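Hi everyone,

Forwarding the result from last night's run.
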Amino acid sequence: MMRHPFTLLIHIALVIIVTGAIVTHFAGIQGTMTLYTGETPTDSFEVKSGPADGHMPFAVSLEKVDIDYYPGTKTPMDFKSCLNIGGEYVTISMNHVAEIRNWRFYQTGIGDGSSTVSISHDPWGIGITYTGYALLGIGMIGFFFQRNTPWRALLRSCKGVSATVLIGICTTVDLQGASLPAMQRPLAANLGKAYVYWNDRICPMQTMAFDVTRSLYGAESYKGMTPEQVLSGWLFYFDEWYRDYLSEFPATAALPDETKTKRDKKTVERIGLIQWLGTGEAFRIYPYRSESGNMEWLSLTGRRPAGMSLDQWTFMQTTMPRMKESLLAGKNIKADEELHHLKSGQQRYAGTDILPSAGKMNAERVYNKYARPSIAGGLAIACGLFLLFLSLRREGSARWVNLLTDILSWGMLIYIAAVMGILWWISGHIPLSNGPETMLFTGLTALIGVCIVRRNMTVKGCLCTVGGIALLVAAMGGRTPRIGMLMPVLASPLLSIHVLLVMTSYVLFMLMALLSAVGLCSRSNERIENISVTNRLILTPAVCLLGAGIFIGAVWANQSWGRYWGWDPKETCALVTWMIYAVPMHWGCRRMACFRQPKILHIYLLGAILSVAFTYFGANYLLPGLHSYA
């Protein structure tokens, strides 16, 4: 190992990281304290771990607390506390830590005039651990430039195909309901352009229409009507639509007292949504700015604030009734004028600094209508399976097959990139903050690999299949990933880097599993050997990417929660997955020579993918923890 200094550095870095963790465990101090504005300074805190007596060498007091909201909403964007620490005034917030004399203060929670602060005193453990992280990063990067390693020898032995694979991968008629009254389609489309406060954000009413229609009917249309028409029916003709719903879904009227099944729980949610629509509370379309400057969105049946002007109160009380009166009288032009009056009033009373721009509103409407990752996912899987079938039947591939695959792959890549780009622009943050968004990125990464890989049909088929599966998983919760505000703790640039590295490694792990399955099904010894060579080449960068993602996540956790490792289920599962894949990476060692045998390597990699599946799905949805949001 002395001939390979970067390989040695990687192992030394791991020892340093473990040493830092041990020092933190035995010498680091963790605690919390809840402070209230106006209280006298205190030096005591509640000890969570470490050798401490519950006192700091200085006193701390809370000067004030503040919550930043997304413009025009009541969704928190950040929590801030101004502290007086030993006579020094500092401000802490999510992902912004204050450090005084090696004591670190983190924002944990906030209340009305109170703030919960996490405390950490671990100068040696954090320093040792971060040193290990830095050395590990240098070692992993330097490994790929290191000469005379088994991995470089394997890379040189290839005739270009596997190297290309590695570089490419590491670089996505108007049918109206006969019996139900609703707005005409063009008028309903204009209704979808109005503003509404829905899911803790300001959005076009079209977004609300899509959500309501999917929730109530499990589809994006009902009896040939668009989502906007469906929403207009529930808004203006509630009784007729409610009677129709009871006839179509009789379980809604005869709900058992104890809802034990998932089906019954879904029915309860639908009943609650119908009641919410029926009372008018769901339609929060009237913006009101108080004298203090706070923005509030009032519903159709909302109260009148004491400070509201008579003109705005008249606007609230007359706009929708006049629109309904015009609809019942068949005066659609008059109803459209009232709808225009509604949108003008929203802009006047909310102000241009609060409402989303016209460009973002139009982009969201396009996103709602055309963002369908499930369609692209199904096409990608079909294309991938076709390529895998051909690769098992013949050595080469016809030029028309490559040309058609390239056209489809580039088309799907541009489409998914456009979907993610629009989602990024609308939400205001990189779309890597939840499960559907990360799976979209996984599909995008796989499609990039498909477009770059030129001749290896087996690899192209596997990548295409991986991308299709990821896109279908992204659409499991609905045809379109929901747009939402970013949680305060996620508003860190380290989030994007952490997720990008981890999800790229998952793409490589899934690719290796599919390649292994193809290798085990193949009867050609030469193809089996070639696939094993490709897998061994991919394995090393995949493990390095996952390792880098884990440790960048640890730095992010230290900035947000005051600890870089907390044995959270997702953290633990990711570490176990990293160790599982690190085992065959040592195939160059004498004791690991068994992984040079193609069948053993294929079987191992095919089984190892189960750890990736559990890390992503099991830790996210089955085990509670800090990563439950993902």
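The first helix runs from residue 5 to 27.

Cheers,
N.
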